Recover the amino acids of this structure.
């Protein structure tokens, strides 16, 4: 190996760290030069990024294809809405932990039932339980029913008389979202590199083997499901704060499917992938919605048609997501140049990068 | 509860259960034989109902509409299999879910473009527009009995097709060992295409015959799809017998869950919770038998 190669490899992590810090700094400075609309749009992308990362913990890292992940996102949003008294603010420092714990608890209870199933059953059962919660909020007058429930006043962040931020201001909401986004990212990085994270990867590759090695895989999967639910709860709370209204669609299956799509679009089994996917998804949605009227058909009004077509094509043509497509392109280019490793030495490393799950026999 | 009321609710639950069976048997067949999870299955129910509505409008006759709508459903099934579904046989479950979910969005929007977003109604055909008197005040519509009859006939035909005919034998063999059947010179691809079209047609047929009693509305397919998932989870994936038992069970639980709340109407303990009874049943079954009542145990 040449000297240039070695030094490049040594400096790569430092470079990446620097890039990440620069990216965060750039994001943090956004409210000072961008208009309100764009700031809120980027905040929504980051909220969806949190939700997508939390789903990827199940989907990409543990191999649990959950089709009901929006349930926990919705539960946390509803907890905030129900804790908020009419025309008054709930306390941020109490409502936030309660909402996240609420999401985690519902994930724990639902997980207790669903985690014992596999493959196709898991998909259908997670969807069915999410629908159960959907109907609970949709059909009963528990929290505004079908119409949803308004949060008249955003949570109050006062602590011992000091108010570090004001959630009635959109830029403060944005910065709170950014802080929590970075914290969730760091948390997942640490978690996935821990022993726990390695056990999850082991379960994805071969659960039987993990069990015969003495791991109580049920407990690990349940813990993973609960953590993912809690993180989805963070996203749900933030969404409720940003929109100021919560309705059953928060936990509808279109929401669950959209998050799943973000994860796959970006590339599952990575942390950057779901975030990239969330951004791509929201931009696409916006793009399709602003299509013009052509003849007798309003192309923008029927944006779901194009979205559906896009999903079909992605599922057919882009199995490893944008990141996967990017890295295979990069591999081809570097192979043509005759430099760099053409295949990764460790099959697990490439397996993590948007690897399609093994087909069930 | 009075005997007559009880009888009516029992008939209702059997009718609902049989209709569910018609839809979920297609779902479970397609999975059991082809290994495909099709979340767009509910859309075919919706398409069937809308076809029945729009063709009845155009032709002025429900039976003529039915006679035209069934072949259309078969063609939709064949074309879809050829166009997209055949690329899914070797793919992971996740992509099957995604692709068929994309199809749902497309079907919903195409429905919106073609037929609009309004709630529609189909009249009960004149020949069956009568009621059987049970008591002085209670009667039961003949059309609902006819629905149950059609479902039973179709179930019988399916049993005969799969268990007693040569085609059925090939279908069963194909689900066990695809390569072996292919090497015997049988066109498995064709078999798959036919099975998929059969599933589509069953769901669409259910939509058509249900249209006169339930209204025709956007999103009706998604509502029924989730219930069918519950049916399949309870009955066991790939088991037609399981689908039948679970459908009838769900029919009973759902219907009587709603009736009993009327009975204890004075108490008003969130009566709408009745719609959750089906899911609670599923949770209980999952604890007891995670692979469903008639499912094969998978590790």
């Amino acid at each position: 190996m040449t000297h240039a190669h070695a030094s490049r490899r040594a400096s790569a992590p430092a470079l990446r760290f620097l890039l990440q810090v620069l990216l965060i700094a750039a994001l943090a400075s956004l409210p000072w030069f961008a208009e309100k609309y764009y700031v809120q749009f980027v905040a929504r992308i980051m909220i969806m990024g949190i939700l997508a990362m939390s789903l990827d913990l199940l989907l990409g890292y543990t191999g649990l294809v959950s089709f009901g992940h929006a349930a926990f996102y919705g539960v946390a949003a509803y907890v905030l809405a129900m804790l908020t008294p009419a025309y008054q603010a709930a306390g941020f420092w109490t409502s936030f932990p309660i909402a996240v714990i609420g999401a985690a608890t519902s994930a724990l209870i639902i997980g207790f039932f669903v985690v014992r199933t596999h493959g196709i059953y898991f998909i259908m059962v997670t969807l069915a339980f999410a629908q159960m919660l959907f109907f609970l909020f949709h059909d009963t007058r528990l929290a505004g029913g079908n119409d949803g429930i308004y949060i008249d006043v955003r949570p109050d962040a006062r602590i011992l008389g000091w108010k570090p931020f004001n959630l009635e201001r959109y830029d403060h909401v944005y910065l709170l979202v950014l802080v929590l986004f970075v914290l969730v990212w760091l948390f997942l990085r640490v978690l996935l590199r821990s022993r726990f994270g390695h056990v999850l990867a082991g379960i994805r590759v071969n659960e039987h083997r993990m069990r015969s090695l003495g791991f109580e895989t049920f407990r690990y999967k349940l813990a993973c499901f609960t953590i993912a639910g809690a993180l989805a709860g963070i996203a749900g709370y933030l969404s409720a704060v940003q929109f100021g209204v919560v309705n059953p669609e928060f936990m509808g299956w279109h929401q669950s499917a959209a998050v799943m799509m973000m994860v796959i679009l970006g590339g599952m089994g990575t942390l950057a992938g779901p975030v990239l996917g969330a951004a791509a998804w929201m931009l696409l949605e916006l793009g399709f919605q602003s299509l013009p009227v052509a003849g007798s058909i309003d192309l923008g009004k029927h944006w779901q048609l194009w979205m559906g077509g896009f999903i079909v094509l992605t599922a057919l043509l882009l199995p490893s997501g944008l990141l996967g497509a990017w890295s295979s392109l990069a591999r081809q280019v570097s192979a043509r140049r005759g430099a760099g490793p053409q295949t990764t030495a460790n099959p697990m490393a490439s397996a993590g990068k948007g690897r399609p799950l093994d087909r069930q026999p | 509860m009075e005997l007559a009321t009880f009888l009516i609710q029992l008939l209702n639950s059997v009718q609902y259960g049989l209709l569910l069976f018609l839809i979920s048997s297609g779902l479970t067949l397609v999975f059991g034989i082809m290994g495909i999870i099709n979340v767009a299955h509910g859309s075919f129910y919706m398409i069937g109902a809308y076809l029945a509505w729009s063709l009845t409008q155009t032709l002025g006759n429900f039976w003529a509409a039915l006679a035209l709508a069934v072949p259309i459903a078969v063609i939709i099934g064949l074309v879809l299999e050829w166009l997209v579904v055949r690329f899914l046989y070797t793919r992971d479950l996740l992509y099957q879910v995604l692709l068929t979910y994309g199809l749902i969005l497309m079907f919903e929007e195409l429905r919106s473009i073609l037929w609009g977003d309004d709630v529609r109604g189909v009249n009960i055909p004149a020949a069956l527009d009568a009621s059987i008197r049970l008591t002085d005040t209670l009667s039961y519509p003949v059309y609902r009995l006819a629905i149950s009859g059609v479902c039973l006939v179709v179930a019988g035909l399916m049993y005969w097709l799969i268990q007693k005919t040569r085609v059925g034998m090939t279908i069963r063999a194909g689900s066990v060992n695809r390569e072996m059947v292919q090497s015997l010179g049988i066109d498995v691809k064709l078999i798959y295409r036919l099975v998929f079209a059969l599933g589509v047609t069953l769901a669409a047929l259910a939509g058509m015959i249900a249209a006169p009693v339930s209204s025709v509305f956007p999103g009706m397919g998604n509502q029924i799809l989730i219930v069918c998932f519950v049916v399949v989870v309870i009955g066991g994936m790939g088991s037609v017998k399981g689908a039948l038992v679970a459908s009838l069970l769900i029919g009973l639980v759902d219907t009587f869950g709603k009736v009993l709340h009327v009975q204890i109407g004075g108490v008003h303990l969130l009566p709408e919770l009745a719609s959750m009874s089906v899911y609670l049943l599923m949770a209980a079954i999952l604890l007891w038998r995670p692979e469903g009542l008639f499912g094969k145990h998978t590790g």
About this structure: Chain A has a mean pLDDT of 84. Residues 3-33 of chain A form the longest helix (31 residues). The two ends of chain A are 43 Å apart (CA to CA).
